[in-house]
Amino acid sequence: MLRILVVEAVFSGATLVLSQAFMAMGRPGVVTVVQLTGLSLTVPLMVLLVPRYGIVGAGAALLLSTAGRFVCVLASFRFF
Questions:
Q1: How buried is residue 21: exposed, middle or buried, by Cβ count under 10 Å (0-12/13-18/19+)?
Q2: Half-sphere exposure of 79 (CA within 13 A, CB side)
């Protein structure tokens, strides 16, 4: 579980740092959409993975949703 959460923390930190560029450009809406994407991934993944895998499933759900936010932030740089 610790390894999963450490990787999740790395992705989360990178996403936070990269999203600051949009805040500096005066585009907080992009950051809002990225955060909503992460939330919309977290809830269904928790519902699917926690009953089956327990605490490891919760960590995996957080990791997958954070990786999704990271990919969204990287993709947003191409458009904005």
A1: middle
A2: 8
Per-residue pLDDT of the chain in tens (80 residues, 90 and over written 9): 999 999 999 999 999 999 999 999 999 999 999 999 999 999 999 999 999 999 999 999 999 999 999 999 999 999 88
| Domain range enclosing 9 | 2-79
Nearest-CA neighbor of 70 among 4, 2, 22, 13? 13
Total domain count for the chain?
1
Is the pTM of the predicted complex or chain greater than 0.70? yes
